[in-house]
Amino acid sequence: PYRLLTESEHHVLRDGNEYSWNNGLRNGGEVGVTHSPANKKDFYDVFGNVWQWCEDYFHALEGSTPHPYYDDFSVSCYDRQHHIILGGSFISTGDEASVWARFHFRPHFIQHAGFRIVHSEDGDRACDASRIGSSNTYETQEMLDMYLLMHWGEEHQRFDPLIFTHITFPRVAELPIACAELVKRFAIGKDRVLDLECAVGRTAFELAVTFKEIVGIDYSQKFIDAARHLQQHGTLEYTRKDQRMQKTKITAIVNPSIACHRIRFEVGDACSLPLDLKDFDAVVLANVLCRLPKPSICLKRMQGHNGLVKAGGILVMTTPFSWLPQYTPSDHWLNSVKDIGDILTDFDLIHQEEIPFMIREHRRKFEYIITLATVWKRRLSSIET
To answer: Which of these, 14, 115, 268, 286, is most buried using a 10 Å CB contact count?
Structure first.
């Protein structure tokens, strides 16, 4: 398989004894890869034509210190949403024209940027550059364990039996199962379902009992890896935090009667999905809205010519409206069903209910959440405006 090069590999391509200048912008635009001669290592176009995207999300200097040779903006890019770009472009000036320049941008940056494709001699060995320096909240083992317990833990595993004998816990739902039940209840077509931001996949597995094809997409590679492991092996061991340093090993178990071959798990961004992903009988969007940078983009993707939801299909959405500025700028917050409905112009609201559920941190600390569940049906007469 082919991939992008890593920052380390870009250093290998360089020939430190050769340099040239684009004085007076003699080259006024991007040129072909072989326009200029190859360097002494026989590599073309290493510097000065277009910026080159790297596999690395982040490759920190030792101690996360700023770079000594230029104004380094990389320290603020520990969010797993930026990739390193190297090599400069024909129009780079100042510190951007330095061979030491290494910048970070989100993938939507396309000005004067290109790709250098790499094929490893050792075949299918995966490149792990993207894992360097990741600090995404949802990529930690602690968060993975917490979600595995919420999705797959039995009641006696989530709520301490000893404490249970002295107090009464609030009656709560298992949110992943509750979402699957809403889909089964309201979806007319039984072919395809998209579980968008599926976490560790419990809803997708529950839907595989009824539907023919389920696609589970999540932004977290760690979550998707866990879901795939459960799909392939049927079990996955994880750790439950009890108190202080006390922990318990628990095994998530998939019901063997579930048709796991009907499910496909993929890493993806709810705000940037491929256009050929469309026409589902149902889409599940569970507690995702208030963690998106611009939720209206995701909601608009449900409708139109390439809508995720087919005409006559449904959108099952839950949200506690717990907006936080570190995830979503305040001018993009949606504070009511009406705000959501104003965006979903192809849909009619057909059901609404409150669903209480709990996320366990440890045996004596839980997050109690009341999420608003709504079901929206896309009109048969809806067309792209």
So the answer is: 286
List, in sequence order, every residue forming a beta bridge with 215; answer none if it has no partner: 194, 264
Q: Name the β-bridge partners of 374.
A: 317, 352
Report CA dihedral (4, 103, 43, 122) to the nearest 10 degrees. -30
Buried b (16+ CB within 10 A) or exposed e, 215-242: bbbbbbbbbbebbbbbbeeeebebbbbe
Q: Residue 36: give its domain's CATH number.
A: 3.90.1580.10
Instruction: Count structural domains, the chain.
Output: 2
Arithmetic mean of pLDDT over the chain: 86
Q: What is the Cα–Cα distance from 236 to 268, expressed in whole angstroms?
A: 23
Q: What phi and psi values does residue 144 have, to the nearest 5 degrees?
A: -60, -45
In the 8-state DSSP scheme, what is residue 65? P
Evaluate whether 314 touches 347 at the Cβ level (below 8 Å).
no
Average pLDDT on 236-248 reads 92
Print the domain residue range for 166. Answer: 137-378
The DSSP secondary structure of 326-341, one letter per residue, reads TTS-GGG---SHHHHH
Checking if the pLDDT of 121 tops 50, the result is yes
Distance, CA of 129 to CA of 134 (rounded, Å): 10
The answer on 149 and 131 residing in a single domain is no
Per DSSP, the residues of 143-181 read HHHHHHHHHH--HHHHS-HHHHTTS-PPP---HHHHHHH
Range from 126-135, 233-242, 357-366 carrying the lowest mean pLDDT? 126-135
Task: Tell how far CA 143 is from the center of its chain.
Answer: 14
Mean pLDDT across 176-194: 98
* DSSP letter string, 205-248: HHHTTT-SEEEEEES-HHHHHHHHHHHHHSEEEEEEEEETTEEE
Question: Which of 135, 163, 183 delimits the end of a domain?
Answer: 135
Q: Is 75 helix (H, G, I), strand (E, B) or coil?
A: helix
Instruction: List, in order, residues 6 or more apart from 270 with CB less than 8 Å away.
Output: 196, 197, 217, 219, 285, 288, 292, 298
